[in-house]
Amino acid sequence: MTLFSKLQPARKLKFIWPGLDALAILAWGALLLRYWLNGQLKLLIHPNYFGLVLITSIILFLLGSLKGWLWFKQLRKQSIDSETVQHITLFPPGWGSSLLVITAIAGLFIPPTVFSSQVALQRGISESLPVTQIQAEAFRGTVKPEDRTLIEWIRTLNAYPEPDAYNGQKAKVTGFVVHSPILPKNYIFLSRFILTCCAVDAYPVGLPVKLEGDQKDYPPDIWLEVEAEMITETLAVDTQTMQKTPTQKRQLVLDAKSVKTIPTPADPYGYAQ
Question: Which residue range or ranges hold the DUF1980 domain (predicted)?
């Protein structure tokens, strides 16, 4: 007798498994619809796919309802013959559906969270966007410097990556704080995540901020609104790897004139176009 054979369910429970399959499908339909209704979907997936998620949730509801109705109809007729229907499976029946139900219920009670500064450090904070994710028509070169968001500053740097070209320009940007141990104590990174498809491929972009005080005044992960003047500084840090570089690199830096703590925005991510 194998371990899995010991875990085989009681014969009466075999009548429940088809109903559990229907419950799993309905639970996932409910989870996707809940994310769509309460706006949490934007923490998980690019807005281009919101419609697809909504359609998927509706289809799951229809399939789950149909399967539940068939199961209920079959149950009333007691037409399931557990003696004649034999299936060879690695795991006892119902395990897969049970795991799907548990996962969906966990998703209903545990909301998705915003990526932290630790994730940004692990993935590396970029000052550029991948070439394949830039669309020339999306670049707004006529926007006033002080009206650019942090992500628009990154796009501007992609279009013309000479930091000296922006010296003296005003900026007013928002983002979350990242502390890098290889930056001087009066520097922080101001960062935001960009989603190209879903949260799995999210990557952080950002710019160094030169403070008048110490970085300890601004703990990691808090959100700041920074009014600054653009300057060029030479820093010995590779933002792609967040490691020291043997040769210093000229970088565009936000020379902070005003720093204000703000709440985490309802829409904390940027999205590739």
Answer: 22-125, 146-271
